[in-house]
Amino acid sequence: MIYLDNAASAPVNPKALEAAMPFLTANFANPSSLHGAGQAAALAVIEAREKCAAALGAAPEEITFTSGGTESDNLAIFSALNEEKRRIVTTQIEHPAVLNAFHEAEKRGFETVYLAPDADGSISAEKVAETIDEQTALVSVMAANNEIGTIQPISEIAEICKKRGVLFHVDAVQAVGSIPIDMRKINADYLSVSAHKIGGIKGGGLLFARKSAPLSPMIFGGGQERGIRSGTENVAAIAALGAALEEITCDIENRTAKIAELRDLLIKQLAEIPISRLNGSKTARLCGNVSFSFSGIDGEALVQSLDLYGVCASSASACSAGKQTVSHVLKAIGVPKEYAGGSLRLTLSENNTREEILKAADIVKEQVSQLRTLSGFSQNVNQS
Ligand code: PLP
To answer: What is the structure's pLDDT at 112?
Structure first.
């Protein structure tokens, strides 16, 4: 198997698995229990919080453990809503975890604004500055896009929001481990992280919320996580997240440089396919993201064909796959319809090798050609 779907879920890091194992086996105790086993579990949660805080340049009390990126996004957005300022701003290319939280806020009577990206998928800080007004409570912009990999200028946007007294939430689910994230340098109020994208295990995640930022619970119960997120802690996932975040943020430069080299090789190979286009920015791009569209094929059919040859890929994003609709991200950046339907997202990790990339590229070339032949599509380059 050549696994090129790391943006959907990345492999569990061996150190994360090692950190989780005791809490799935010998120590199954509840961290709220006062006996030794319970207190050992509680200590694991404390230590994981310290590791996560250190990795993000935050204080431990600024970390709230959640069930993943979706919950973190929702927790930030609904915590920021208030009755005095009833306008909230995001972008057209956010993950559904943000977009659907905004749609819910809209149903509750809040005014919502969805900023359009440029053709690269970039949202400029100037655009955010023009949009913010006296009534704006929150701006939510992802650090990097999950489909096309474009990296946003979040530090600049954070400065604008701070100056204008507007809360700023960053969905960093795809960016953590790919770009340096230091909350001492990025003036954002909230930042969402998901465990299964960075070598942790599913069902884990965290929200960074600056001490000054409002935080209100969505789940009520036993008062765990300082009353912000009740429910018995997922100790194994939390311990794994601490280890995974520590691992993925150390030596980030060397690791991402190696992945970027493979990404560029893959882009070069796939660009040889006639009547194709690379989606997203050529420069401000996640080290592991390759997003292409091929005219004359169906993206999902391509993903299925690749699977038969052992290549794991996604069409646009894993979430929109299977829905037979054109991705909202590709639509927002203006990818023509005849291309958007034939989209392929390949996302790499440090586990991939040069041999795998070359082999996968050959398989993609072959399968695109076969699908085009089957559908009677002419590969004459003049068509583009
Ligand atoms: N935000 C982004 C940018 C994502 O890519 C994802 C998942 O693909 C999420 C949020 C949701 O994260 P989770 O799967 O942990 O709920």
So the answer is: 98
- Residue 323 in 3-state DSSP? coil
What is the 290 CA–ligand 1 centroid distance (Å)? 18
97 CB less than 6 Å from ligand 1? yes
- Ligand 1 centroid to 93 CA: how many Å? 13
Q: How large is the average pLDDT for residues 13-18?
A: 98
Q: What is the DSSP letter of 219?
A: B
The interaxial angle of helices 235-249 and 252-270, nearest 10 deg, is 80
Q: Per DSSP, which regions of 141-246 are E strands?
A: 167-171, 190-194, 205-209
Task: Match 């509840």 to its residue by tokens.
Answer: 30
**Rounded Cα–Cα distance for residues 170 and 193 (Å):** 9
Number of neighbouring beta carbons within 10 Å of residue 112:
16
pLDDT of residue 246 exceeding 50, the answer is yes
> For the chain, what are the domain ranges?
59-231, 252-375
Among 121, 87, 176, which Cα is nearest to 291's?
121
Atom of ligand 1 nearest to the CA of 146: 5
pLDDT tens, 180-222?
Answer: 999 999 999 999 999 999 999 999 999 999 999 999 999 999 9
Structure tokens at 227: 């009353």
* Cα-to-centroid distance, 70 and ligand 1 (Å): 6
- DSSP assignment of 230-286 equals -S---HHHHHHHHHHHHHHHTTHHHHHHHHHHHHHHHHHHHTTSSSEEE-S-SSSB-
Ligand 1 pocket member 249 (CB < 6 A): no
Q: Is 252-375 a CATH 3.40.640.10 domain?
A: no
Mean pLDDT of 251-259: 97
CATH class in words for 59-231: alpha beta
d(CA 384, CA 379): 9
Q: For residues 74-78, give the mean pLDDT.
A: 98
